[in-house]
Amino acid sequence: MPPLIAAAAGVAAGAAVVSTGAAVATAVVVGTAAAVITHESGAADFVYEEIAKPVVKGIGDVIKYAVDNPIETIAKVAAVATGQMWAIPLIDGAKTLAQGGNLGDALKAAAISYVGGKLGNVAGKYVSTGLRQAGVNATVANIVGAVLRVPQRRSSTGRTPSRLSRPVGLTRR
Predict the structure, then answer these.
(1) Half-sphere exposure in the Cβ direction for 79 (13 Å, CA)
(2) Last residue of a domain, one of 37, 53, 68
């Protein structure tokens, strides 16, 4: 996979050169050089190991969780799609009850979900605003802010993605 990343870097560099009006031959030379440098410097390995693999694994974990928990997934997607974000903590509490937790466990799951969602939204808003004020491109700042809001999924259950299949109220420390 790292050679594909190096090739992609070369193609991107070549396309950038062509977009400036340079000759195609120049773009080929620059693209080839970028690909070689990316591969030889270890940048391609880094991108593959530290970025591509974890992202693909994370997406796989999310898909597996959705398939393993279809009712919860449908309920949460419906809540988000209709703008009823207030229902997500209730869904988390109901899931805990459905998995055998008691009322205290369900209330704890709902409370963690609520607080986690609020913290994720606040963090995302402040960080994206701060990045924009620091001169970072608005699109990049918005993406970083949105990424900070994503962990509310983790916070809402109190579990890491690899532990999502375990019920909140039934795990003992």
Answers:
(1) 15
(2) 68
Question: Of 157, 137, 129, 143, nearest to 65 (Cα)?
Answer: 157
Residue 160 and residue 132 share a domain = yes
pLDDT digits (tens, 9 = 90+) for 98-142: 999 999 999 999 999 899 888 877 877 777 777 777 777 667 766
Domain count, the chain: 2
Coil vs helix vs strand at 159 = coil
Q: Which domain holds residue 45?
A: 1-68
Is the separation of the CB atoms in 159 and 91 below 8 Å? no
DSSP 82: T
Q: Specify whether the CB–CB gap between 35 and 6 falls below 8 A.
A: yes
78 & 139 share domain: yes
Domain boundary among 20, 42, 68: 68
Q: What gap in Å lies between CA 129 and CA 41, rounded to an integer?
A: 35
User: Taking the model in full, what pTM does it have?
Assistant: 0.50
